[in-house]
Amino acid sequence: MTSNNDPDDRFDWHAAEADLTTPDADVVDLDAARAARHHDDTDPTTDTVDLDGPAGRVLVDSPDAQRSPRFDLGSLRAGERRPILPAWIRSRAELCDAMRWAVGHLLHTTGYHAVRVPKYAGRLALRSPVGVWRVLSGGLRWLFDLEGEPVRQATVQRANAEEYLKLSRQRDRRVRWRGIIATTALTATIVGSVLVAFAPEWVRWASLATLVGLFGIVGRPADKPLLDTAVVVPRVAKLTSHVVVSALAVLGIAGINQAIAKQGQKAIAFTSPITRDGPGWRADIDLPAGVTAGDVIERRDRLAAGLARPLGCVWPEGRPEVHPGRLVLWVGDQDMATAKQPAWPLLKSGTVDLFRPIPFGTDPRGRNVPMDLMYTNLLIGSIPGAGKTFSLRVPLLAAALDARAELRVFELKGTGDLEPLALVATRYASGPDDDTLEEALDALRELRKECQRRAAVIKGLPKSVCPENKVTPELASRKNLGLHPLVVAIDECQELFSHPEFGKEAGELAEKVIKLGRALGIHLMLATQRPDARSLPTGVSANVGTRFCLRVMGQVENDMVLGTSSYKNGVRATMFTRRDKGMGYLVGAADDAQITRTYYVDGPAAERVCQRGRALREAAGTLSGHAAGQQTASPAAVRRDSLLDDILTVVPAGEPKVWAETLVERLAELNGEIYGDLTRDQLTAALKPYGITTGQVWGTDPTTGKGANRRGIERQHIADAVAERNKHRGDKAA
Ligand SMILES: Nc1ncnc2c1ncn2[C@@H]1O[C@H](COP(=O)(O)OP(=O)(O)OP(=O)(O)O)[C@@H](O)[C@H]1O
């Protein structure tokens, strides 16, 4: 019955029998036992446990453990309820979008065919003689039962008189009643023709057109439809499990290859059927043991080659919350980079309530990706030219459409990419120079103070008005409280954070603002093309709530922008290519990381949106600062212009030398608004451009009255610098 070649021969039936006869093992699952034996071949320690020496070996995969769990109410309660209505019907925006598409499709098709009516009429006229011929010949064949003729001829040939008689009788019967019908129809046609001949002219033409149309339809060639194609629908190949497994097999991942070699197609488990999901296919995959979704995502280009689809159609994503080996593969019908993207929903009309999500971009399926701006901050990072500034512009434009929001915008590249926002911004500065950087730094200083002020306001409010100790839409609308949304954007923020003089302070301030401002209606948006430790302080990158990472080149930058372990978990912005402009991973806007392409709003369109935002502010009386034409020089600029004169004011002519610390105190006393934050280091740096350096000078401590050598300046150096400056000014004026 058995042969030596049968692998089951090597199975230890005695051991299995012993297992069977142990008191608490009532059933042995033979499949499990065989599987245990196979594993045993490779590693004898994995599937059996030696509890009491050789006699006590028991199977690890016990029948109890292998039995499917019984149904219980708990598992039903834990089950995931599938939505009754599909997501696109529940979302107002998506429903409107679908409706818009349906109406547009209908109008296009109608218009397309309407202009071709003369062409279709000509076609029908040309085809109508064939139609007449088909009707007449078909009618005669039917009338004389000609389709039965070959059979009758065959019976004649076989000289089968009885059968021939039967067929002839049947034919006579048929021809008789068909003749009656044909005669009636012919009579009706003649009567109809006579009536039409005496009818008004339009009836005659209409009848002729109808007849031509009908005969034209009947005379249609089988391979040529009457109507041209108004909409060409692209045909895409189906995604099947076979295609997916074959593509995964060519990625060169050892774990996948070994599993496929052992188990074939079964090595890749599909956790649910491959389905259509939006304009593409979706496969939910459990990768073989030990292979992570990140391993596949890293080889997206090879995966696309394996699937024989353009790279922009293939979007593998991990689901680390399920397990690291769960992969969701979405294969679009069209390349995401070239597929037509819907316009930004607020492009032409609409206002924004910043306490509600704003439309930020679209996902690979073309659906809107919303983003919250309140109670969070935003960090955008990528290599140069991937679409950072365009991405930053979208939430800024949304903020522009909320009349309550105050915008402060600093663009540190100096190309004017955010220029349209100057129409609505309370503060706007653009430039790569130190002055602009210092303005941005000042803005952060102000924000820190604003945080303190707002915190005090909120603390002073009764719990009934402010139950969660954070700004609510109602509080933000109360002008007297000054708790309106305050949106501050710094594009190319690496310039500020890596600045030798301002960098450290800016990093500390930004971290404080990010941590505190969130609940106080202050929203900081940072965009950087150099997401590394020097250009993006860890205190900043670790505390930002919402992150958008466009194309980056490595794991470090990826995790700097998207958060620690993102790369390991398969959220890899390294997979985006040069063509994927405006595309990135959005983290923090939803539970999972989302592949998002930001809405494309170009310069002129952005300007039109800002004009609307400006009109809203004018109506609400909230236009202020830069946008309102109040070109107040920045504290940095004022300080720079007046520093030398103010030093001469606070250091009398009889005091040749003064300590830097004394000078800083006196300047703050003179003008707290401009010099309140001035530190000794900043003073030293501000004097450097005039060639004035601080050195050890003798002075007396006013509190102790003791003399000492400390860092300070000589008054004469300042006086010389003022004289030099005035000379220059005089030259220029002349
Ligand atoms: N959502 C988008 N869809 C299509 N193209 C886009 C999108 N966003 C940006 N682009 C294109 O990418 C180009 C670069 O964008 P952007 O200037 O925002 O890049 P950047 O990362 O800020 O560059 P840099 O670091 O040099 O400032 C733009 O000229 C634009 O045409």
Report on the structure:
This protein folds into five domains: 7-66, no CATH class; 113-218, no CATH class; 241-332, Threonyl-tRNA Synthetase, Chain A, domain 2, CATH 3.30.980; 379-627, 3-Layer(aba) Sandwich (Rossmann fold); 635-733, Arc Repressor Mutant, subunit A. Helix 7 (117-143) packs across helix 10. Strand 3 and strand 4 (280-286) form a beta hairpin. With 734 residues, the chain is α/β, with parallel strands linked by helices. Adenosine-5'-triphosphate (ATP) binds next to helix 15 and strand 16. Keywords: ATP-binding, Cell cycle, Cell division, Membrane, Nucleotide-binding, Transmembrane, Transmembrane helix. This is Cell division protein FtsK. Residues 366-559 form the FtsK domain.
Layout: helices, strands, pairs:
Blueprint: H1 13-21, H2 30-42, E1 48-50, E2 57-59, H3 63-66, H4 73-78, H5 87-90, H6 92-114, H7 117-143, H8 149-158, H9 161-198, H10 201-218, H11 241-249, H12 254-263, E3 269-276, E4 280-286, H13 293-297, H14 300-307, E5 314-318, E6 326-332, E7 358-362, E8 368-371, E9 378-381, H15 388-400, E10 406-411, E11 427-430, H16 434-459, H17 473-477, E12 486-491, H18 494-497, H19 503-517, E13 522-528, H20 538-541, E14 546-549, H21 555-562, E15 583-587, E16 594-598, H22 603-620, H23 635-650, E17 657-659, H24 660-670, H25 672-675, H26 680-687, E18 695-700, E19 707-714, H27 715-733
Parallel strand pairs: 9-13, 9-14, 10-11, 10-12, 12-13
Antiparallel strand pairs: 1-2, 3-4, 4-6, 5-6, 7-8, 7-16, 14-15, 15-16, 17-19, 18-19
Helix pairs in contact: 7-10, 11-14, 16-19, 23-27
The structure holds adenosine-5'-triphosphate.
